[in-house]
Design brief:
The protein is of the alpha+beta class. It is built from 3 helices and 5 strands. The chain has a 5-stranded mixed β-sheet, with no helix packed on it.
């Protein structure tokens, strides 16, 4: 992740523990334990659309598509002033994300 510019070394006074979450394919996804940060985060006010919102449009549809974006959150840059807020502590040191991290309260609605 360091070599791919996903994270960088940090001197942040804030840090969350790093967790590795298993994916369906057996790979591991890094995820900060942002429970404390999320408790202080104001949730985005616009809801993510649900399938029920589109049911009347989709019921006549015969062909559907599915897209799985590779490392989608890692495509969203984090503002410089916010990077220290999402720092993670690892056995190898303190790092902060340059891109959206999994586990942040508003990450799904931002994406």
């Amino acid at each position: 992740m360091l070599e791919n510019d996903i994270i960088r070394p940090s001197k942040s006074p804030l840090a969350s523990p790093l967790h590795l979450v298993s994916e369906k394919d057996g790979s591991l996804r890094p995820c900060g334990d942002y429970r404390r940060l999320n408790a202080q985060t104001i949730p985005d006010r616009y809801p993510i659309p649900s399938i029920e919102d589109f049911h009347h449009v989709l019921k006549q549809t015969k062909i559907f598509s599915k897209i799985d974006l590779f490392k989608a959150y890692f495509q969203i840059p984090v503002a410089e002033e916010d990077k220290q807020k999402i720092a993670i502590i690892t056995p190898f040191g303190l790092y902060e994300f340059n891109v959206m991290s999994f586990g942040l309260r508003n990450a799904p609605s931002t994406f």
